[in-house]
Every structure is written in structure tokens, then in C-alpha cells.
Amino acid sequence: xxxxxxxxxxxxxxxxxxxxxxxxxxxxxxxxxxxxxxxxxxxxxxxxxxxxxxxxxxxxxxxxxxxxxxxxxxxxxxxxxxxxxxxxxxxxxxxxxxxxxxxxxxxxxxxxxxxxxxxxxxxxxxxxxxxxxx
Length: 134
Hints:
Blueprint: H1 3-8, H2 11-16, H3 26-39, H4 42-59, H5 68-84, H6 90-96, H7 98-101, H8 104-111, H9 114-118, H10 120-124
């Protein structure tokens, strides 16, 4: 994620749906999740982020792209890692957590089977991982 893109992202812009969807890649999702966890208590951060992301996908005409399990799983990982060093700025957090930002596939694959992630149940509500991380 380019510095210019990061400077334009904020909780307020995300909740208003005024972000550039072309620049909202996986790392930008992680960054905004991190911003939420800095701004709100953990349960509220998760609920607000998920609600804003659902609204954004609806506004963009792609509501089927929202996936509750993937979103909550990544927010949980971000929260755990943020709690380990809450004083870190984004650069330090990003450097220590490259696996979170490098794309969702490999990390998800260690915890979830493709069949479970493809299920309607996992799309609509959080489902616990069905694999043990190696």
C-alpha cells in the first residue's frame, strides 16, 4: 500500500464509504482494521469495521464480496498482534506482521479448508477455523 493511499484512509472515510475502492487492497483492509483497533475497544472495533465494510460492498454493488468469517478472522489476528505492541506505529506493526499484509490466501489456508470458506454459513456468520495452524 502506497503512503499516499494510507494517508487518505481513515475510520471516518471508511465508514462514510468515501475511500477509493481501486486502492482498497488487502493491506489497506488490514490497515483500516488496525486503525479501528487503535480507536475503539475490541468488540466495538470489530462490529463497526464489519458494518462499514458491508455498507461499502453494498454501495459498490458487490455485496456478495463481503465474507463474515474472513473479515472477523483477520480482525481477530490484527487485534491479538496489536495488543502485543500497542505503542507501535503502522510501519512497525506492518514490519512485524508481514504475513497479515501479504494476501489472505496462505494465512487463511493454514486455518480454514476451502470448502468451509466457500460455505454460505461462513459467508454469513463467523465460523471457527477447521484446521490447526502449522
